[in-house]
Amino acid sequence: MSAPKSRWANEDPEEEAAIALRKREKEEKKRAKAERQKLVEQQQQQQQKQSAAAEQADSAEKATERPTKRRRISNEPIPSAETEGEKVEVQRKLLRFPAPEWAPCRHVDNYEPLNHIEEGSYGLVSRAKDLVTGEVVALKKLKLDNSPDGFPVTGLREIQTLQRARHNNIVRLREIVMGTSMNDVYLVMDFLEHDLKTLLDDMKEPFLPSEIKTLLQQIMSATEFLHSHWILHRDLKTSNLLMNNRGEIKIADFGMARYYGDPPPKLTQLVVTLWYRSPELLLGAEEYGPEIDIWSIGCIFGELLTTDPLFQGKNEVDQLSKIFAVTGPPTQQIWPTFRSLPNAKSLRLPPSTSSLGSPMNPPLLPRSKFPYLTNAGLSLLSSLLALNPSARPTAAQCLKHSYFREDPRPKAKEMFPTFPSKAGQERRRRRATPEAPKHGEEAPRLDFANVFGSGGGGGAGSAEAGAGFTLRLG
């Protein structure tokens, strides 16, 4: 049974035939479009297959080709390019490593000179201001005028060690600048308001025990860093210790510093300013190590306690006599090898010598010399000033000493008093203190026969000309 027709339907047969014809044409167009789409997809698939086959063929051809360079597996001669009929080009690639680029030094005109501070053995130190940042710095002009061999080795060592020694208690080398001539070489370093020698001379009373511990800890920390990097300072003294108004100490003046090894190399004995020079150097030792810096720190420790240098000798003979007056004469019990030193052969010991102590346990210094020092402090000072270099502790061992853990504890740097800066207002006054030895001098053989005689070697009859020693009168 057919569905009933709508009463609005057109029952004209011609119109129905036309509608049916339009339906058939529409279906044929859809079918033709689908066939064309199918044909395009087949063509794309065929092209992809052809390209894949071409790639496989190229890779196979490359695999069958002979490499430009093959590993030799026998001692047969390598055929040349002419015999093979082709020229082989070898491409070499350079390995690149990150490194600082070479660049010219800046000119000293980038700094405005403010005032002269002082003149040392190897340079003139001035105060200057950076024109770009406005920071106040210290300019050290190296002395190159009397250098026939070119750039002085002392300047090279100072630059090398300052570049390597990056520590909070070591003065920082910012850069190297040049002047108008090749002899104008300046080291730009951090500026600190004081040097410890000037402060001690101007102070009415010495530092407090807690302040001495803080200063000594900083000096020991910087020295331990230097020795752990195989660097000897070789001129530690209070005038080479700079201090700012924040209680920070920094070691400066590395003109005599140098690297050493184990075993230590043969070195010159003309190092360290006379008042801070160890007895083995005075007796002509040519092989030494960090022990000479430890002795200098012991002298600095005693100077912090009394505000005056411990041993103020006029020459080498007088210096040794003043040392023995405090420490006692050397004996075979406390220093078994001292007779092997060159200048010790002429040393005449007093007839009655004490046998107290041992090679690794030196006797204590006299209590009357340091009445306000604790037992732990006297023990540390006595070990620093031991005649036998082997009995002196390392800087790392000193930092662990009980002296720094007993009361009063080291004072915080922020609690340190401030002092007016002499360097910022005027020249630092020249003191009647010896200078450091000059580079290149030869050490003479000295006669220490009268060290324990009348006058202790400091009289008119026994005043040898001290090697590397000049007296500066203020």
From TrEMBL:
InterPro entries: CDK (IPR050108), Kinase-like_dom_sf (IPR011009), Prot_kinase_dom (IPR000719), Ser/Thr_kinase_AS (IPR008271)
UniProt GO cellular component terms: nucleus
Keyword set includes Disulfide bond: no
SUPFAM superfamilies (UniProt xref): Protein kinase-like (PK-like) (SSF56112)
Compositionally skewed regions (Low complexity) per UniProt: 42-57
Biased segments, Basic and acidic residues type: 22-39, 432-445
Family, as annotated: Belongs to the protein kinase superfamily. CMGC Ser/Thr protein kinase family. CDC2/CDKX subfamily.
Protein name as annotated: cyclin-dependent kinase
Species per Swiss-Prot/TrEMBL record: Talaromyces islandicus (Penicillium islandicum)
